[in-house]
Amino acid sequence: MTTDPRKTVFAQLTSHLPIRRFHTLVKRYRGGYKVKAFSCLDQLLTMIFAQLAMCDSLRDIEASLSANPKSLYHLGIRSRIRRSTLADANEKRDARIFEKFAKILIVEARKLYAAEKPVPEIGAVVYAFDSTTISLCLELFPWAEFRKGKAGIKWTKQPASSVIKPSASPEPRQAPHIPSGFAASNTGIWRRGIVYEFLSNSFTLSALVIAKLYKQRWQVVLFFKWIKQHLRIKLFFGVSENAVHIQVWTALSAYLLLAIVKQRLSLPQELHEMTQTLRLHLFEKMPVLSMFFEQPPQNNSTSNDKQLALFD
Fold it and tell me: E strand or H helix at 135, and its extent?
C-alpha cells in the first residue's frame, strides 16, 4: 500500500488489493490448474486495467498493453497479453474466484467507511436493497433470455454483498432476515406545501428520519448509474455466462479499489474525477498523491541574494 514514485500509477493502485487472499481463492477453486502462463492474477490485473483505461474490446486491451511491452512488468502483469489468451481465461476459469474476491473488497471498503453515518439518528447499520438490469443481445447471449426477444442479467445489491444472475431467474419471495421487531405504518413529511408519504414498518422513527433513509436508499441507484457510466459493463469481452460474470465482478472490484484508495489516501476528489485523472497516467511513474494535491512551486533560482536588483 504505497505511493512509491518508482512504481507506475497502476501498480501503486493495485498495491491496495489483498493479493494473498486472492491467491487463496485461486487455490480453493483450482484457478491455476494446468496454467503455465497468464495466471489468474495476471487476468485480474488485466481486467481491472481494462476497466480503468475504458477499453472497449479484447483488441483494445491487447493494443493498450502491447504498445509498451516493457511496462507490463511494472504494471504487475507477468505475461504477455494476447486477446485469445484473455478470451480463453474468461471463458474457462471459475468466476467464483473473482466473485469471492469482489466480496472481500466489499468488506474492506465497509470497514473504511464505517465511520460515515448518513443518518446519525439511527444507532445501527442500515441496509438498502435494489437491483438493475444490464441489457444483452439475445443472439449473442441466448443463456440470458428473460422474455421473448430480450436478454439481460440482473445485478442485485444486498447487504454486504451483490448477486448477478440472468434476469429470468425468480426473485426471492422474502428479503433476507434483518432483526427489527417493527410493525407497518405510513409516515408523512411536509415540505414546501406538499405532503410526501413514505411507506415504513417503523412506529418509532420520526418522519424526518424515514425521509432521510429514503434519500440514502437513492445512493444504491447512483451506484449502479456510476458503474454503467464510468466502467465497462455494457460492452462485454466475451459472450459466455462465465465471461460476463468475470467482467462484472472485476468491474465491481475496480470500483471498490478506487473507493478504498480514496479513503486510505484521504483524497478529496469524487470517484469520477479520480477515474478521469488516473486513466491518463496509468503507465507513468509518479506518486499518486501528486496527481490530486497541488505541489508547492519549486524555486530553482541560483542567483545571489546579495546581488542588487535592476528594478526594485
Answer: strand 130-136
* H and E: helices and strands count for the chain: 10, 6
Phi/psi at 210 (5° precision): -60, -40
Q: How far apart are CA 249 and CA 48, in angstroms?
A: 10
* 154-172 pLDDT per residue, tens: 888 765 567 777 776 665 5
pLDDT of residue 147: 80
Task: Return the amino acid letter for 196.
Answer: Y
Q: Is 300 part of a structural domain of the chain?
A: no
- CA 149, CA 141: separation in Å to the nearest integer? 11
Q: How far is CA 227 from CA 98, 152, 208, in A?
A: 17, 16, 30
Confirm whether 76 is domain-assigned.
Answer: yes
Query: What per-residue string of b and e applies to 24-63 under the rule 16 or more CB within 10 Å gives b?
Result: ebbeebebeeebeebbbbbbbbbbbbbbbbebeebebbbe
The gap from C-alpha 134 to its chain's centroid, in whole angstroms, comes to 16
Instruction: Please name the helix (run of DSSP H) or strand (run of DSSP E) that holds residue 131, with its range, or none.
Output: strand 130-136
Number of domains in the chain: 1
pLDDT at 173 over 50: no
C-alpha cell recorded at residue 207? 418522519
Cα(17)–Cα(105) distance, integer angstroms = 8
d(CA 120, CA 176): 24
- 145-147 and 130-136: which strand pairing? unpaired
Is position 302 within any domain?
no
Residue type, 49: F
Q: Which three cell numbers stand for residue 245?
A: 460474470
Is residue 157 in a domain? yes
**Total residues found in the chain within this entry:** 312
Task: At 187, list the grid cell.
Answer: 409516515
Contacts for 29 with CB less than 8 Å, ≥ 6 apart: 94, 96, 97
Helices (H), ranges, the chain: 9-14, 19-28, 40-52, 58-66, 71-75, 83-92, 96-112, 207-230, 241-264, 271-279
Residue bearing cell 509498451: 68
